[in-house]
Structure formats: C-alpha cells, structure tokens
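Q: NADP-dependent glyceraldehyde-3-phosphate dehydrogenase, please. Structure only.
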Amino acid sequence: MAGTGVFEEIIDGDVYKYYSEGEWKNSSSGKTVAIINPTTRKPHFKVQACSQEEVNKIMESAKVAQKAWARTPLWKRAELLHKAAALLKEHRAPIAECLVKEIAKPAKDAVIEVVRSGDLISYTAEEGVRLLGEGKFLVSDSFPGNERTKYCLTSKIPLGVVLAIPPFNYPVNLAVSKIGPALIAGNSLVLKPPTQGAVAALHMVHCFHLAGFPKGLISCVTGKGSEIGDFLTMHPGVNCISFTGGDTGVAISKKAGMIPLQMELGGKDACIVLEDADLDLVAANIVKGGFSYSGQRCTAVKVVLVMESIADALVEKVNAKIAKLTVGPPEDDSDITPVVTESSANFIEGLVMDAKERGATFCQEYKREGNLIWPLLLDHVRPDMRIAWEEPFGPVLPVIRINAIEEGIHHCNASNFGLQGCVFTRDIVKAIMISDAMETGTVQINSAPARGPDHFPFQGLKDSGIGSQGITNSINMMTKIKSTVINLPSPSYTMG
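A: Structure for NADP-dependent glyceraldehyde-3-phosphate dehydrogenase:
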C-alpha cells in the first residue's frame, strides 16, 4: 500500500523511517516498535525506535531552522501550508487506510479525518496571515500622569521549538491542529506521534515534506515513550508543548518546566436531559455522541443524566437505535469497531463488571470478542459505581436517573473532569442557566459534544486540561508579545 508511489521513500523494507533534517532516516538504534492492528491483534506495521542522541540532533536542527523561518514572510509561510493541505487531501486514500489498520477507524471516518485536516491547515494559513499581520500601537498619554512622549509598538513573535504530541484517536487531525498554528506563527515543530497512529502521522508529515518546507523545520520522531518520552518533554530545547491525550498529560505538566503548555486531557462529558426535551433528537445525539468511533473520543457523551419522568421513554428510544448499529471490522465501515488495544478492552470490561456487581440494568447483553466490544447501555447506574465517574473510552454508556435539574448539575460538577457537556431542553432560559452552572469548557445546547468546527475555542477545566485550543487560540498561544518603545523628546524640549 504505502510502499508505492509518492510514499516510497518513507519506508525501508517493512519498517517506516523517521523524519529529521528534511530526510527520511533509519534509527542508529537498530530497534523498531511494532504497531498492533486492533482488529487482527497482530503486528501490522513497524516504526523506528529513535534514540536520545537522535532526539538531540533533531532539537539542534529545529532550533537553527526556526531562526530562518521566523524571518520568512507570512505570505510565504501561508503558501507552503496551503500546498501541504492540498497534498494531504490528494493523498487521503493511503493515509486513511493507515488509520483503518492502526486504530480501527471506520473507513469512511478515516477519509473524513484526513480531509478535515487539510481544511484545518488552509484555514490556519489564512487566519495566521490576518492575526499575525496586525500589531498594536499605544501612546503613553493614555495612562495617568504621562505626556505623549512614548510610542509602544507590539507584535506577536514565535516561541521557538514546539513539541506536539497527539493521541491515537485522531493522530492526523490532532497533529495538524498543532503543526499548522506552530508553523504559521514562525515556530519549528517536533512531532512525537502516538504509537498507534504513527504510520498515518508519518504519511501526513511526508505531505509537508513534499510541500517544500525548509529542512529541519519539521521533524517526526517515533519510539517508545519509556525511552524518549520524558527525554522529549523535559528537553531544554523545547519552548512549548501541545499535548492531547489522557493521564500522561498530568505527568508532563509536572515535569515540563517554565514553558507554555497546551493540554487537552480526558473528559466525562455529561448529557443532561430535561422533561421538555425532544426525545427523538436526544436519542439520536446520545447514540451518535456516545457510540461513534466506539466511544473513543474525549468529547463523547460519557454519562446521561435524565429526569426520572422521561427516563423509560428515552432509554427505549436509545435502545431501538443501538439495535441498528453495525458491529465489525473497520474495513466494512461498521459503526462499532474494535477498541484500540487489549488493555483498553480489559479496562472497559472492568467498569462493566463493577456495574453488574452493583446492580446496574443491562439494556443489551454484554458481548466481547478480542478487542471488539458490542455497544451497551447501562440503566439505573448509581454514584457508587465506577462507571458513573471513570472514562471508559469505549462503547459503554451509563444512564443515571435524576429527580431534579440540580442533581444533574451536581453530578457533572463533582467530576474531576470538565471538558464538555450538553443539555437538552426547549427552554432557552433553562438551557443558558444550566450551561452557566456546568463547570466545563464547553456546553452544547441540543447537540452532542464535539470539538469542531476547528476554529471554535476548545478547552477543558480541572483535570481536562490547561489553556485553550481552536485555530485562533492556538496561534495566540504559540506566540509571545514583543514590545518596542520609542522615546520621543519631552514637549518642553521640542517646543523651546
């Protein structure tokens, strides 16, 4: 597949190379990392296990390349990003095929991810030119006690080297959401892709290579987190870290030192359903929000908090829709595909068994084959069950029945997470008041949580992250304000 045509140079035999100083290279370590296909549970790809020495070289060339790139005109940076976006869309088929094999993403969704990533890069190029092409002009007599003797010019300058670490579930899209803003802002970029998703990321990086970016500006280092993870995140050459993922983010933020961090971590996104809600709309959004890509999304619906009076009717509608979901391999475009690893499947099973022991109602039979778990709605879940609080990252959804809106808000806010939430009601006043009370980065009214469109602000509170994303916010976060003050002679001196 990928060893043909345009992607020939990124693979050597059956091992994918890493990308450094504008070249595709084999690691001197002689070691590789196997990528397990979640569907077959057998090794499917191999990538280089890079050494710390190679990371040092990458950081050195990134630093040098960044200095020249910062002096490159904005329109030129944008031009190259547009080129990369076009190449990414043109080669969407082989990249999508990697996503199917590496992370069991349904074929149709895999293509959508690659195309969306191209759109994101193009928008970033345009937004960056507008945003970074503007400075600010301040005069000193706008502050008490000052004459107009000082002019202050402020502009946005790059931070330096940005380390980008995307997660397995969107290894292309969540990589470009970091790469695009970093590059348009004048930074260089070091990408450490997730192991599951590394090959799709290497293909994506090759599109940037083909677009003609300067050597050393973009690097992609693969390897074991245990060997190069801490070494990368604590490297003195890194000036900013943008990370999307789970618990690892907390560890990174404790070790990273005094640099800007952009972290998007887990979520336990609550769906609060009021008595006046359109139950057909709610059911459709619960199934889409809770089960698409087998629930392996930080913005998936993770807990349904529904008013007791309508709970039976809603559960019945949701179950009717779950019954229509197709379960199987991603190649067949199944709705529910295998979860990413065996350990992930085991964790989900642990949550299900805990709920069973504590008396939750199983709306479907619990069924698992390897990494493939059939969709399951758990009714009558109580706060003493692990699944009420923990994030399964799988096709398993708990329903908690509530007797007052306050109960739903309380459950949402008692969580350590605060990424997104949603509320379903026809009463806009109630919707706004509940949104106001929910301690989450985003609240969706009458829709399931979602990260996009990619230019919307996206952020989490509490254990769900630090900083804000979305194209504009990321560009701002990956720059610093630089002030230049011009001191004029005092008025008495000039008039005299």
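A: Brief note, in case it's useful. Residues 270-445 form a domain with the Aldehyde Dehydrogenase; Chain A, domain 2 fold (CATH 3.40.309.10).
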